[in-house]
Each structure stands twice: as structure tokens, then as C-alpha cells.
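hey
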């Protein structure tokens, strides 16, 4: 059965109103186009419905992406407009291969609750790389939140002071991807280290963390206090790795000494990103 050209304007408008009430406005809009475009007169009813539904789903996906990006905090970054994966320059110094970059861009590591740790000196492009990963996650359909590390500590401290830590963590953990930039640039108390550990524990295996830091990986444990909290935090960060070649890096070997036996590297590592 072909739909022909819908000449009954009143019926078309009624159908459009019903579609809007069903909260599928893009389908309603596209129905109007079908009704007035002779090029679609030979389209079957099934084809028309499938086309309208496809337009609706595509529109919703685009709006969801934009909503996730807007809420993530990534757009406030000065590097946001340059956050383009096609501009990634692969060099030996970065310890990043093309196949590893492709794996990152699939975002499947987020589905499996794996973590990404990024280390490099100031001005080497860590924040830019974090923005690329966050943008791709939003496009993939993952709710994402970006924080500079000092700001995250402020929020954890404020939540603790007002006895709202559980509420803050619950809202934070609604995000499938948590991005923490400038890790290690602020001092951390035992209480805040404990709060950070709880955040990581509640995300373990179900949600991912990306961390960018100026500190070499082998200094993270000492920065965190070198105590049981530090052991546990490193344990959570190094959990659920993918099999890569990066576990042979000297820095990572030293870092993983602070993790339980059997744990290997996180999904991937970047050194001196440019």
C-alpha cells in the first residue's frame, strides 16, 4: 500500500497534533513534509512510518548529545573548540598508537567501567585530550562530568561539612564518565582522601574515570599519603584493565606495585601529550 500525496489538510493536521501529544514532534513535522512533497507519493505506509521514526530517533540522539555536552562542563574549557580527535598527533613520546586511539574512540571501555590515566607536564595537551575523550563519550550517549581536581575537592569538602556526602556522590555517580583534571595540584586531607576513595569504590566496574595529572604515575601513591587510603585509591584506579602493551612502561610498573597482585595497567596511558 502506497501513501500517495496526503491532500486532506485537516486530517494531516489532526495526525500531526496527535503525534505532538505523543511527544514525537519530529515525526509530526516530517509528516507535513510528506504530505506536501510529490517526491514521496510512491512511498509505502511502512516506509513512511520508518522514515519518520528514524528522523525522530536521530533528532533525539542529537539533542541528548548536546544536553550531555552542555551539562558536562567541558564547553567551558578554552580548548573545547579544538577538541577534535582527527587532530591527534601520534608520536613515540606519547606512548599512543593509532589502534589504541581507535579503541578509545569506540567508548566501549566506558561500557565496561574501565579507567584512563593521563600524565604529562604542563602545556603538553592533557586537558585537550581529556576534552576529546569527554566529547566522544557525550556523542556516544554517556552522561559525562568534568571537574578540575581542586574544584572536586571543594565540593567533597562542602558536602562533608553539610552532611550531604551521600547525596553529592549519588548525583555524581549518575555520570557514566567522570573526568578529573589537574589531579595532584591541591593538597588532600585524610578525610577528603577517604571521600575520594568512596567515590571510586561506588563507581568500580560500573562507571569510568579519566584522570589527568602533571604528576608522574609513580608519585601518585606518595601524594595520596602513602597510607591505606592511598593503597585503596590506587587499587580502584588500576582496576579492570584492557590488555595493552603499556604495562611494560617503567613508571607504570612502579605505580602498580601499590596495587594488589594480579592487577595490571588501566586501559591506556599518555605521557607528554602535545
Amino acid at each position: 500500500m502506497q501513501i500517495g500525496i496526503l491532500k486532506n489538510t485537516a486530517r494531516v493536521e489532526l495526525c500531526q497534533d496527535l503525534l505532538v501529544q505523543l511527544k514525537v514532534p519530529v515525526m509530526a513535522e516530517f509528516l507535513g513534509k510528506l504530505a506536501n512533497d510529490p517526491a514521496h507519493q510512491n512511498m509505502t505506509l511502512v516506509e513512511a512510518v520508518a522514515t519518520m521514526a528514524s528522523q525522530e530517533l536521530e533528532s533525539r540522539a542529537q539533542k541528548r548529545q548536546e544536553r550531555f555536552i552542555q551539562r558536562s562542563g567541558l564547553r567551558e574549557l578554552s580548548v573545547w573548540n579544538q577538541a577534535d580527535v582527527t587532530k591527534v598527533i601520534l608520536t613515540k613520546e606519547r606512548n599512543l598508537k593509532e589502534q589504541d586511539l581507535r579503541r578509545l574512540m569506540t567508548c566501549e571501555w566506558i561500557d565496561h567501567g574501565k579507567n584512563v590515566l593521563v600524565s604529562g607536564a604542563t602545556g603538553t595537551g592533557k586537558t585537550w585530550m581529556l576534552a576529546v575523550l569527554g566529547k566522544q563519550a557525550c556523542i556516544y550517549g554517556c552522561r559525562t562530568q568534568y571537574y578540575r581536581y581542586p574544584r572536586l575537592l571543594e565540593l567533597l569538602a562542602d558536602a562533608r561539612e553539610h552532611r550531604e556526602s551521600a547525596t553529592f556522590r549519588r548525583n555524581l555517580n549518575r555520570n557514566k564518565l567522570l573526568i578529573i583534571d589537574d589531579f595532584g595540584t591541591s593538597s588532600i586531607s585524610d578525610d577528603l582522601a577517604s571521600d575520594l576513595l568512596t567515590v571510586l569504590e561506588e563507581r568500580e566496574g560500573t562507571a569510568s574515570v579519566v584522570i589527568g595529572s602533571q604528576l608522574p604515575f609513580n608519585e601518585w601513591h606518595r601524594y595520596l599519603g602513602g597510607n591505606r587510603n592511598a593503597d585503596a585509591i590506587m587499587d580502584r584506579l588500576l582496576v579492570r584493565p584492557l590488555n595493552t602493551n603499556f604495562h611494560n612502561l617503567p613508571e607504570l610498573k612502579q605505580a602498580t606495585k601499590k596495587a594488589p597482585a594480579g592487577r595490571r595497567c588501566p586501559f591506556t596511558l599518555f605521557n607528554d601529550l602535545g
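The two ends are 59 Å apart (CA to CA). DSSP finds twelve helices and five strands in the chain.
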